[in-house]
Structures are given as C-alpha cells and as structure tokens.
Design goal:
The protein is α/β, with parallel strands linked by helices and 583 residues long. Helix content is 36%, strand content 22%. It contains 22 helices and 19 strands. Strand 5 and strand 6 form a beta hairpin. Helix 15 crosses helix 17, helix 16 packs antiparallel against helix 20 and helix 19 packs antiparallel against helix 20.
Length: 583
C-alpha cells in the first residue's frame, strides 16, 4: 500500500512504503478497487496518468486516488488489509488503551508508523502503516516484549492517533516550587525515564489524564487485572489495563513523586505534588488505600493554569442569570449555593466572587481547600489540627473589616449561625450547602436550629444546581418522538402545533474527539429561589420545603427539571442524562 500521508519513511529501491514492489502493489490496489466496484477502469487510468506525472512520488498512487475523489482512505486500507491477511480497524469509536501505547516511545511510533492499540490474549494489537514489514514487526516485538498482532487503519486516522496518544515522551517535570519543598524526593529527570517502564507509564497516565480533562485518576489492583480509570465529566471510565506485574513499580513511582513512604503499605497515606505537564502547572493530591489485592491510589488533579469560568459561561438561563447578578450586587445578605458533592458549587462561588466589585471592597474567603487563586481576594485555608475551622476562621475574618465573605461550606450550626449574623450586620456572605433543591436549604437551616426569623431576615437567595454532561457535537445521535410521547415527559417544553420533536442522545460508541464516551464537557442546571415577602412569611411559619417550592414556582421560579428539559430541547444534553442527575 502506498502511504497516503506522504510521511518520510525508509524505502529501498523498487519497493513502496508498505514493503511491496511498486508495480505489483499499484496494479493490485487498482485492480482490487476496480473489482470491488469502488472505482472504474477509466478512473484508474486517469489516476495512473496523473500519478506518473509526479516525478519522485512513485509510491503514492493511493494518495492520488483519494485526492481525485475516486475512493476514500478507508477503501484503500481495506484492500491493503485483505492483501496482507490482517484485520481492518477504524479508530473512530475504537477504545485505544494508552497502557498499550506506553509499550513504545513516541519516537518509535513515528519511526515505524505504528500505534499499539490494546492487549489481546497476551498479544499486542498494533495499527501499522506497513503490516507486511517483517523488520518492523521484529523490532516491535523486541521493543515491547509482546507478540505483535498487526491491523490496518486509514492513514489519516493513524496520523491523528499517533499525535494524540504519543504523549509519553513529553516531559512531566517536577515543578521548581515542589523541588524546593522536597529536594530529596529522588525523582529522576523527566528527560531520562525512557528505559524504565514504570516511569514511562506514570508519565503517560498523568499526561493522558490532563489532556483528557480528567478530575481524578484511580489505579486499582484486582485478582487478575490492574485497571486505571479516569473520572471524565463526573463519571468513571476504564482507560487503561496495564500488565498486572507493573502494579508495585507504578505505585512506588507515584508515591516517590508525591513524597510518600514507599515502604509503608499497610496504612492509608496522603501526599501531593506539583507537576508541569506540557507547560501547564498541575497540582495533584495523592491518596493511597490498602485494599484486598494491594494498594490502590487516587489522584485528584487540579490545573492551576486553567482560566476561571465566568458566570456567563456556567450555562445559567439568561433570565435567571440577570436575577442572580442583581442579587450578588446587594450590599449585604446571605447567598447560598446548594447541591450534592461534585455539582459545581465551588465553581459557581468562585465565578460569583469574580463578578463582584473587588477593587473597592474587602473580600475574604475561608475554604477547604483553596482551589483557585483570585486576584484581590484574601483566601484562607482551614487547618483543624491548628484549631482553624470554618467557625473559628469566620470569627477572625469578622475582625478584619470585610465587606464580602465566602465560607466554603456550612457544615454545622455554629458556622451557620455566625454566617447569618454576619449577613445581618452588613456583610454580603456567600456559602454552600448539601441539599437536593433550593427550598430544601431553608428547611436544612431550621434543622440546624437556626431561628426562622434570622433565616427570613438574612437570606437573599438560594441557587440550587446540578452538572449534566454535554453531548459530543461530533457524534451525538438525533432521534424523533411524537407529540403524544413528548407530552408524557414532565416539563419538556413544546411549541404549539409541534407534532414531531427532534431530540439528541449520546452515541454509545463515541468518537475519538470525546474519548469514546459520547459526551464532551458539562453544563450547569440551575434553580434560583429569590427570598421574597411570600417566602419570608412561609419561612417564619416553618412551612415545609414542598410548600415553599410551590410558592416560589407560582412566583416564576424555574425548577431544576424545567431548566434541564430546556437544555434537552436545545440539544445540549440528553433526557437520560437529566434523569440521572435530577431525582
């Protein structure tokens, strides 16, 4: 097969870039395409005429056929696969195992035009541009230590995949700041890890996790397998399955990087490291946990160089956003953001602080931990061992003449009482709480024994939220339902006389752009409860969360489900995803 990419590779006289004699290869490919009805004899003759005019490019007939629009790269790849007696594979939707990629360096992948895809029956499945190249196959066996099972893929897919997955050679460097703190970590220079599989694999896992946008990495050992999972958009996905024998060396490598005790495997440990991955500063918190078959590691990744999201980018509906922006400009009051763990409350609080006037106001936060640094904001991290809790820290903050205070989370009655008193005495206070909806926050404060008159007087608004995964725009699947079916879906907005409703769902196979998940990114779903006179009256009367919610809806509040269904109609997310995140 002739190389479609035109990439320079070793060639000997009379042979093309696939290891076939040029005339035989050209003749065979052309005849196979003609016999399959993909091109005509006239098209083949025309392509040969154009091809023969290109001096010095005798091995690129396939590229000529593709450029002239007579066939596709996939057509030629299938012919080559049949010729070589190996399977044809399309990488669109194919789950590439980066642990397999770690078996060779990026330089080797580019040199041999080969990409390891997966492990199968103790063999390494490798996508190759030249599946009949015996020398390359032998070299790959020597480099990887595995028997090689070659497959053929379209050239452009192979080129893109090598660029995307050959990241192991990119240096993962311990930052200068980290080296100063832990000068004796024993971490070898990032430029010299090539001979050590554990170092190579650790670098690959971290780099791939950063590039994929993972928030967490789980390294888990089971009876017969070692698995690496990434949390992408809030959901865990199997990403790699390295050989089980690499577990001990991989865990030791990461523990050394995080300044943990590699000899202690019986008790949980915590560590941290700051790395520079492709020029980006990444903070990583590492937690080890002894499990049945061996230690498991959890890595929490935080990209310090990422730009903070603004309120406008959160996905809040325009009308709700205007109401919320007016509320956060109030001189004083208590603003609560609620939702379960991982629903984006911290991101909303940071975006809110970024939107207030920090130049003329004294803004102080107390957090656990401080995740993002904000200009002109004094940020304090709690330290319970030293006696610095949310409650004690909040008392100290009040002695520092603040205008705006952000308390990371309301966890107990004492913190709630001080926050509410602060709001009543002329401060604007932001905080978060774990409740299912906005109205539930008022009931939760009552359960914390906060007097209803204090809540009614101080609370300005409650913003409840969830995070739903966004459908990948490249591979999402449209489908149509009837009006009768749509009417059975609660809160799905419908136009008058609209009979056929088009919605979208995730492609179960996904694509290379969304890491084969069908989703890419997340969007917020919001419910804003403004504390009006009606809500204050119901709060004073200790009414239930259901009654408070009904009153808020009658005053125009858009519920979480309604906002979610609005985003379903826009094609941002799917019905299944909204049902998953909203009870």
């Amino acid at each position: 097969r002739m190389a479609l990419t035109g990439a320079p590779v070793l060639q000997s006289k009379g042979w093309d870039q696939r290891g076939m004699k040029q005339d035989q290869s050209r003749d065979y490919i052309g005849k196979r395409l003609v016999n399959a009805g993909i091109i005509t004899e006239a098209q083949l003759e025309e392509a040969l005429r154009i091809h023969n005019m290109k001096k010095g490019n005798k091995g690129l007939l396939g590229q000529t056929l593709v450029k002239m629009g007579f066939c596709t790269e996939e057509d030629i790849a299938r012919v080559i696969a049949e010729r070589a007696g190996v399977p044809f594979v399309s990488l669109e939707g194919y789950p590439i195992d980066p642990a397999a990629m770690a078996t060779i360096s990026a330089d080797a992948a580019k040199r041999y035009r080969a990409l390891p895809l997966a492990f199968s029956d103790d063999k390494l499945v490798v996508a190759m541009e030249r599946p009949t190249d015996i020398l390359a196959l032998d070299d790959l066996r020597m480099l990887t230590g595995f028997d090689v099972r070659p497959v053929v893929v379209p050239d452009s897919e192979l080129e893109e995949a090598i660029k995307r997955y050959s990241q192991a050679s990119v240096g993962v460097e311990q930052s200068v700041e980290e080296e100063l703190q832990h000068p004796d970590t024993g971490v070898p220079p990032a430029e010299e890890p090539g001979d050590k599989p554990a170092v190579h694999l650790a670098n690959l896992i971290i780099t791939h996790a950063v590039n994929a946008g993972a928030s967490d990495v789980h390294i888990e050992l089971y009876e017969k397998a070692l698995r690496v999972r990434f949390r992408l958009d809030g959901v865990l996905h199997d990403m790699m399955q390295p050989p089980r024998k690499m577990h001990a060396s991989l865990v030791s490598r990461i523990k050394v990087m995080a300044n943990m005790d590699i000899a202690e495997k019986r008790i949980p440990q915590d560590g941290r490291m700051t790395l520079k991955v492709e020029g980006r500063n990444i903070d990583i918190r590492v937690a080890s946990l002894p499990a049945s078959y061996g230690e498991r590691l959890t890595l929490r990744l935080l990209d310090r160089s990422s730009r903070m999201i603004t309120l406008e980018e959160l996905g809040v509906a325009s009308e709700t956003l205007e109401k919320y922006k007016k509320t956060i400009q109030l001189p004083y009051g208590f603003i609560l953001v609620t939702g379960p763990t991982g629903s984006g409350k911290s991101t909303t609080l940071y975006a809110s602080l970024a939107a207030v006037d920090r130049a003329s106001k004294n803004v102080i936060t107390i957090e656990d931990p401080v995740e993002y640094r904000i200009d002109r904001v004094n940020q304090v991290q709690i330290n319970p061992k030293a006696g610095l809790t949310f409650a004690s820290g909040l008392r100290s903050i009040l002695r520092s003449d603040p205008d705006i205070i952000m308390v990371g989370e309301i966890r107990d009655r004492e913190t709630a009482a001080i926050a509410i008193e602060s709001a009543l005495t002329g401060h604007l206070v932001f905080s978060s709480m774990h409740t299912n909806d906005a109205a539930g926050a008022i009931s939760r404060l009552a359960e914390m024994e906060i007097e209803p008159y204090l809540t009614a007087s101080s609370l300005a608004c409650v913003l409840a939220q969830r995070l739903a995964r966004v459908l990948c725009p490249h591979c999402r699947e449209p489908y149509t339902i009837t009006r009768e079916e749509a009417e059975r879906i609660p809160d799905l907005p419908l136009e008058e006389k609209e009979e056929a409703i088009t919605l979208f769902r995730a492609n179960p196979r996904g694509c290379i752009r969304c890491s084969n998940t069908g989703f890419r990114g997340r969007v917020g779903i919001y419910e804003l409860l403004l504390v009006t006179e009606t809500i204050q009256k119901l709060t004073l009367e200790r009414k239930s969360a259901r009654e408070i919610k009904e009153a808020a809806v009658s005053e125009g509040m858009v519920t979480l489900r309604q906002d979610g269904m609005y985003k379903v109609r826009r094609g941002l997310t799917s019905l299944e995803e909204v049902m998953r995140v909203i009870v």
